[in-house]
Amino acid sequence: MTDINGAWGAPPSERFERLAQTFRPIFARIAERAVDRDLAHELPFDAYEWLKTSGFSRLRLPVATGGLGATLPELFGLIIELAAADPNLTNAYRSHFGFTEDLLNAPDSAWRDAWLKRLGQGETVGSGFSELGDTPLGSYSTRLVRDGANWRLDGEKFYTTGSLYADWITLGAMDGDGQPIGALVPTSAPGVEIIDDWDGFGQSLTASGTARFRDVEIADELIKPSAVRFSYSGGFFQLVHLASLAGIGRAAANDLARHVAARKRVYSRGNASRSAQDAQVQQVVGKVRGAAYSAGSIVLQAAKALQRAYDANQGGDQEQIKLADRNAELEVSQSVTVVTSLILDASTVLFDALGASAAKRGHGLDRHWRNARTIASHNPRIYHDRIVGDFAVNGTTPGPQAGVGVAREEQAERTDA
């Protein structure tokens, strides 16, 4: 996965270890209080800032703009390691890295240069696309309309992951003509209210709750030139979740090994005087570790497909772009159910190697399953399996991911047909 001597697999590049040295002490510091934060519902503002100050938010930016010039496999290798420390933070940075990809794939322009500069100075971006209620698929109830030289924003978003920690929110809305429009909104602007009301049983510290916008003034320079995301965005955002799952698996494996090594009590039907020497207990530990290893390997393989899509976009050949985007989407979709099943199973069977005391909340072992189950509920895996099957049988190219909403009448008729 990212530690060859620890039997987690070779890193994704020759320079990866050098790149990772900056962040591993921070990951370790984050991991120290991961259980305590989870138990107390303590939002990781400090940890988010440690990552930001260290340059984690600038990983994908070109060196010329203050970044580290990381490839996508290198980025996902580090996301796996951060998720092993605390997967809440990988989710909190997910939208930021997505917006970074938007910039890296955008045409040259003054707008692009300005935002590369802002991100190069360490500014970060949270999410503002999803909405609750009866909003139709592909649309928004949020409105962003022209008001003289500027714009006015009104509406409400949910699943605004990371926005409570970030400097900006990237969002989608409808303009005065009913057309999709995108903008960057300062999180500190008058009329912006971000609420930590996400009450899921997992990933509870991602700040994925409500953001309200009441008569917010938006400067013209903050309007995106295009509301269209980068072409491989569906696979990218899904792979962040899979990398988070791989990191959860690694943390679960490490926690389990540590608990087994320290355990003194044994069962009368056991196979040794210590659990650490019990062959059946060792087998469970090995199974959990194998699941984590396999999940990480799959993620890094799929990250190579995303890198090929990025490279094709830089080349400009439309046929190559279309093919590379399709392949990246399929490779990620083929990974979803496998990685999800591996980690959900691993985070459950780990308890088979321990006694009832392992269920004590203070140990925090349940957080691995809760976090994994919550992440796995995004973008249901049943649809990924169908998409892959349709391609294999009929050669069908995956359709675009258009979020969640109520089907319009014509969409419902098409689906029913």
Automatic annotation (TrEMBL):
<protein>
    <submittedName>
        <fullName>Monooxygenase</fullName>
    </submittedName>
</protein>
<dbReference type="GO" id="GO:0033539">
    <property type="term" value="P:fatty acid beta-oxidation using acyl-CoA dehydrogenase"/>
</dbReference>
<feature type="domain" description="Acyl-CoA oxidase/dehydrogenase middle">
    <location>
        <begin position="138"/>
        <end position="216"/>
    </location>
</feature>
<dbReference type="InterPro" id="IPR050741">
    <property type="entry name" value="Acyl-CoA_dehydrogenase"/>
</dbReference>
<keyword id="KW-0614">Plasmid</keyword>
<dbReference type="Pfam" id="PF02770">
    <property type="entry name" value="Acyl-CoA_dh_M"/>
</dbReference>
<keyword id="KW-0503">Monooxygenase</keyword>
<dbReference type="Pfam" id="PF02771">
    <property type="entry name" value="Acyl-CoA_dh_N"/>
</dbReference>
<feature type="compositionally biased region" description="Basic and acidic residues">
    <location>
        <begin position="407"/>
        <end position="417"/>
    </location>
</feature>
<dbReference type="InterPro" id="IPR037069">
    <property type="entry name" value="AcylCoA_DH/ox_N_sf"/>
</dbReference>
<dbReference type="InterPro" id="IPR006091">
    <property type="entry name" value="Acyl-CoA_Oxase/DH_mid-dom"/>
</dbReference>
<dbReference type="InterPro" id="IPR013786">
    <property type="entry name" value="AcylCoA_DH/ox_N"/>
</dbReference>
<keyword id="KW-0560">Oxidoreductase</keyword>
<dbReference type="GO" id="GO:0003995">
    <property type="term" value="F:acyl-CoA dehydrogenase activity"/>
</dbReference>
<dbReference type="InterPro" id="IPR013107">
    <property type="entry name" value="Acyl-CoA_DH_C"/>
</dbReference>
<dbReference type="InterPro" id="IPR009100">
    <property type="entry name" value="AcylCoA_DH/oxidase_NM_dom_sf"/>
</dbReference>
<comment type="similarity">
    <text>Belongs to the HpaH/HsaA monooxygenase family.</text>
</comment>
<dbReference type="GO" id="GO:0016712">
    <property type="term" value="F:oxidoreductase activity, acting on paired donors, with incorporation or reduction of molecular oxygen, reduced flavin or flavoprotein as one donor, and incorporation of one atom of oxygen"/>
</dbReference>
<dbReference type="Pfam" id="PF08028">
    <property type="entry name" value="Acyl-CoA_dh_2"/>
</dbReference>
<dbReference type="InterPro" id="IPR046373">
    <property type="entry name" value="Acyl-CoA_Oxase/DH_mid-dom_sf"/>
</dbReference>
<dbReference type="InterPro" id="IPR036250">
    <property type="entry name" value="AcylCo_DH-like_C"/>
</dbReference>
<dbReference type="GO" id="GO:0005737">
    <property type="term" value="C:cytoplasm"/>
</dbReference>
<dbReference type="GO" id="GO:0050660">
    <property type="term" value="F:flavin adenine dinucleotide binding"/>
</dbReference>
<feature type="domain" description="Acyl-CoA dehydrogenase C-terminal">
    <location>
        <begin position="241"/>
        <end position="378"/>
    </location>
</feature>
<keyword id="KW-0285">Flavoprotein</keyword>
<feature type="domain" description="Acyl-CoA dehydrogenase/oxidase N-terminal">
    <location>
        <begin position="18"/>
        <end position="123"/>
    </location>
</feature>
<feature type="region of interest" description="Disordered">
    <location>
        <begin position="398"/>
        <end position="417"/>
    </location>
</feature>
